Here is the input.
Amino acid sequence: MSVDIEGHISRAFDGALSSLHMRVVEMGGLALLQVRDAGEAYTDWSTAMAQAVLERERRLNALDQAVDEDSLSLIALRQPVASDLRTVIAMSRIVAELERAGDEAKKISLTVLGRAGRSGERPGSATARDARHLARLAANLLRMSLDALDTLDFELARKVVAGDRELDDEYADGLRRLLTRAMEDARHFNVALDAAFVLKSLERIGDHARNIARIVLSIAREGEAAPISQQPAATR
Amino acid sequence: MQREPRNEAASVTGVAPAAATATAAAPPRNSPPLPPGITTTGVVTLDDPLISCRGVDVFYGEKQAIKNVSIDIARKQVLAMIGPSGCGKSTFLRCLNRMNDTIPGARVSGLIQIDGNDIHDKRRDVVQLRARVGMVFQKPNPFPKSIFENVAYGPRIHGLAGDRAELDEIVSTSLRRAGLWDEVKDRLNQPGTSLSGGQQQRLCIARTIAVNPEVILMDEPCSALDPIATARIEDLMDELRESYAIVIVTHSMQQAARVSQRTAYFHLGDLIEVGSTDKIFTNPSHKLTEDYITGRFG
Here is the structure.
């Protein structure tokens, strides 16, 4: 069954639901920007970019709160049911995932800025290459999950779930290569430790994208069941 | 989107899916077979139902108000019937105690049985039937008599009380069960019409249960009441379902969601979908049900 956000007799309800949806998509765009910039800040070692990520983090949190408040009042005032209820609940779960993806971006930026007890040293070129690859995969998954949300494209959402498995494999490979390099050259152990945390953050961002895709799928959840007369007669 | 195969199809449709026929889901006990041509989605048949309706049609003159409706109604449960005005839900409710007999030009066909007995059986006494299947209406309609007499009337004409003490007992028990006793025990001789709307409706419920029914039919019992009186009636329904089957017609979907365990959705005389209230309001199977409960109708 296709899911329409609009089409209610009450147009005010349509408006409230679609503005909630738009806000979540807007927050998604911001979270995606955070993830891309944090990845680049690390691989290109740009403190300016890392700083920009930290500054935008507050806006992401504010949007998270705004969506929460909107969902609560929508539930209280409109008593949504069925697909409407699933949509509202899905939106507030999705913003929680986006907020956490934003947190991972923040952690990566803090590494670049040498805060949070990190070494503050630039990764080697091989490590940067691995991180760039993972960052692209993670950002791409997040973008796909947001597109799936924006257009309620359930096929795309399924691709995200599959894509996250690929990211997990890439993460395991990258981590193995990183440890090999760290054992060869123990002087830069601090940098390797930082890099391990960054790779882990990127892998977590992929998990959040997968969770968003699963939540989008939960909005659909149901097909139209066949009437009883169209089912095998022997079972009646 | 593509429909995914559903492995819980059996619970959704009330019949086993094709793959499960080998393991043979037992047919529901004491539930008559379904006639052909059922278009209803959901769980229609139940194990050991109190009421079974099969292929019920109702005509008002040329106009068909109910089309081939089949449904089982459980013991000790609230069934809510919802649907837009003119969908036939009240007409169907009135079939259950043959209230449509009183409407000129109305014809009811199909099987309706209570505990296995056909209610249209010629030997059947309609007055007895209406005692077993009581009814509460939209507007409270107490008799123009005292509170006591309102409740005592039924037991008296059905000869349920041997003497005055027994009658007193029935009246006080019924008023207690209807949650009205404490409010009226000191003024049982005052007219029933002197009570507030909500109290009058509870008096009508006391009058209904005084004759020991098995089923209580309620046709929008709260639509003339304020929210507090409504909450009292809804709370009362929750208690009453420990002893009776209740079938309620309501325009308030929130009320259907609050009071019932099972919900039936009617549309233009068809029973579109029936299932657990929880399922109907979180994840209905039929597009028409979804559109109606989410307010997208029309």
